[in-house]
Design a protein that fits this description.
302 residues, alpha+beta, eight-stranded antiparallel sheet, seven-stranded antiparallel sheet, 15% helix, 34% strand
Amino acid sequence: MPSSSLNTFLRMVPLFYLIFSLMICCCSSQGPPSPGYYPSSKIVPVSFDQGFRNLWGPQHQRLDQGSLTIWLDSTSGSGFKSRHSYRSGYFGAAIKLQSGYTAGVITSIYLSNNQDYPGNHDEIDIEFLGTRPDKPYVLQTNLYIRGSGDGNIIGREMQFHLWFDPTQNFHNYAVLWKPSEIIFLVDDVPIRRYPRKSDATFPARPMYVYGSIWDASSWATEEGKYKADYKYQPFIGRYTNFKLQGCTIEDSTSCQPPSASPSGYGSLSPQQFAAMQWVQNNYLVYDYCHDPRRDRTLTPEC
């Protein structure tokens, strides 16, 4: 290449990277591609009183025009539980998180049968791991299958950052639990799909739906490096637009959970898979299957 052409090229390189970086930024700021299908729009919301009851910390729970506020301070947190136990279904709520210093605090919506099978329970989690003002929230998805007798629960964690600020507005978070798969959704965008590969690696026993806010300082923020600091109390979680549609233990065996995708697809549609892949390519921050510290024999699906 002639020297004049080389000099021109070298002068253009920084400009090229600037333009490329701006393109990446603009694309990321627009959020994920459309999934093309919106399961939450097919489900009628239920009132909190219709679907749930207080489980603990009633003095830290307030219901106002369909919106539930729960909070944690140095005396207590709070939690709620569905009135029915389910063996499959769509379960979610719109949640708004607290801004500022929330390290050590967990705000969650999840399914569990821990009260029925203590030490050997199943669980499907959506947990928001509290953070510091200069760091984003971590959304942790997790599954336990039949726990373990010695209390050493084996989790299947995948963690994400979000493409929006979850403290500014309510966003919809949901779990769709089917006999063949579990799908985690954020604003109807699938972020994780966990297929049933064997009975040993998939929850099959009925579970209740829970929500809670509590102090998990020992592990929640950067593996326990930052603790809950009660000079910032109360720590608040806000919930609304509750969705519960599934097969209870009282329903007949012919009951089917809602569909995750348009008719004609056994699982997610290609458009939904593309949206999920975009999220995982851009916002996945931890995958238990790729953690070299984990014992693979305990998670054979990896």
